[in-house]
């Protein structure tokens, strides 16, 4: 992984850092940042980025990102997450072509690696139209309360609320999973929750209740966005050893760690390839987990 060797760049530092791989601040310093969000993500993003890149200021872009899809089902997301994210950034960049843009796109569902766990994937994009630069970082985590179910009694309701960390985390209530009637989002108030539960029960005999995954209603997601912001800053402030373009970083994870007994290449991680999107320069770093051999129990030859 990246070494956390970036530091806040002050004008006095400029000369000192020319020789390191840290990005020369000329690319970004004094410029402004647009954050494309309707859901208060600037809380997790703005301060860190403004400091790290010596920016002038930030602004929340007044664009309706819900047009590209909502979690609660009113608008289906039509594109894959990366395309959706790129569209968000482009919408913001049209308003201020001179400025830097940051947006994120969250996806939730079964965790790709751990059976029975929910997973949260968050993509974050940094777009600098002026320098034709696009940098994307990603986080996949099981640290999410993503959940939804039908309830028709107070015991099940309370159990669900406890599991998903209500009221610090908001909820959505509606008639049924696919029936958006009487949909109410962003509920944190226990009294409001109970009143809406009673209303839905009286009309439909059951209630579909789910976690509200919008950042300002979900501190777990906000935390992931904050961590992803540091990852983005690491990436932005790492420049290509060959052409000095910012955004040099991991472009692929390569399996093939040799078995400790027979030397056969296993499926475990052998190296990361770092690359530059601008000039195509790459280099490999072997043994990122500090292990030079894999245990024989994971080897398909020794332990088929
Ligand atoms: Zn390069
Ligand atoms: Zn083996």
Please give a structural write-up.
With 304 residues, this protein is an alpha+beta fold. The chain folds into three domains: 11-144 and 218-239, Maf protein (Alpha-Beta Complex); 148-212, Dna Ligase, domain 1 (2-Layer Sandwich), CATH 3.30.1490; 253-298, no CATH class. It is built from five helices and twelve strands. It has helices spanning 42-52, 81-95, 154-163, 190-204, 219-236; strands at 32-36, 57-61, 100-110, 118-128, 133-141, 148-151, 171-174, 184-187, 207-211, 249-255, 269-275, 282-286. The strands form three sheets. Strands 2-1-3-4-5 form a five-stranded mixed beta sheet, sandwiched between helices. Strands 6-9-7-8 form a four-stranded antiparallel beta sheet, with helices on one face. α1 packs parallel to α5 (219-236). It binds zinc ion (2 copies). One zinc ion is lined by residues 259, 261-262, 264, 296, 299, 301-302.
Rg calc: 23 Å
Give the H and E element order: EHEHEEEEHEEHEHEEE
CATH architecture term of the largest domain = Alpha-Beta Complex
What is the number of domains? Answer: 3
The amount of beta strand, in percent, is 25-35%
Number of helices: 5
Proportion of helical residues: 10-25%
Please write the CATH class name of the largest domain.
Alpha Beta
Strand tally is 12
Shape: flat
Structural class: alpha+beta
Report how far apart the termini are. Answer: 31 Å
**Largest sheet strand order:** 2-1-3-4-5
User: Which blocks of ≥5 consecutive residues have pLDDT under 50?
Assistant: 1-20
Task: List cofactors, ions and other ligands.
Answer: zinc ion
For the largest beta-sheet, the strand count, sense and barrel status come to: 5 strands, mixed
């Amino acid at each position: 992984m990246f070494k956390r060797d970036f530091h806040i760049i002050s004008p006095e530092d400029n000369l000192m850092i020319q020789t390191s791989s840290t990005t020369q601040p000329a690319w970004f310093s004094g410029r402004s940042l647009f954050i494309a969000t309707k859901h208060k993500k600037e809380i997790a993003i703005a301060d860190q980025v403004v400091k790290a890149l010596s920016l002038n200021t930030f602004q929340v872009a007044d664009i309706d990102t819900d047009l590209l899809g909502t979690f609660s089902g009113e608008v289906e997301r039509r594109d894959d997450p990366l395309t959706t994210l790129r569209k968000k950034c482009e919408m913001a960049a049209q308003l201020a072509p001179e400025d830097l843009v940051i947006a994120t796109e969250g996806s939730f569902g079964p965790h790709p690696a751990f059976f029975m766990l929910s997973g949260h994937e968050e993509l974050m994009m940094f777009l600098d139209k002026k320098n034709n630069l696009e940098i994307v970082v990603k986080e996949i985590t099981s640290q999410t309360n993503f959940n939804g179910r039908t309830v028709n009694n107070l015991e099940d309701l309370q159990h669900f609320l406890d599991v998903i960390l209500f009221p610090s985390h908001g909820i959505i209530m509606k008639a049924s999973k696919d029936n958006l009637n009487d949909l109410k989002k962003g509920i944190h108030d226990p009294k409001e929750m109970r009143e809406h539960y009673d209303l839905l029960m009286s009309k439909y005999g059951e209630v579909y209740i789910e976690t509200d995954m919008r950042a300002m209603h979900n501190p777990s997601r906000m935390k992931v966005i904050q961590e992803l912001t540091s990852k983005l800053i690491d990436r932005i402030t790492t420049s290509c050893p060959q052409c000095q373009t910012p955004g040099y970083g991991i472009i692929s994870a390569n399996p093939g760690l040799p078995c400790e007994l027979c030397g056969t290449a296993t499926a475990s991680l052998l190296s990361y390839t770092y690359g530059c999107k601008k000039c195509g320069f790459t280099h490999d770093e072997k043994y990122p987990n500090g292990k030079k051999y894999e245990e024989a129990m994971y080897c398909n030859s020794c332990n088929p």
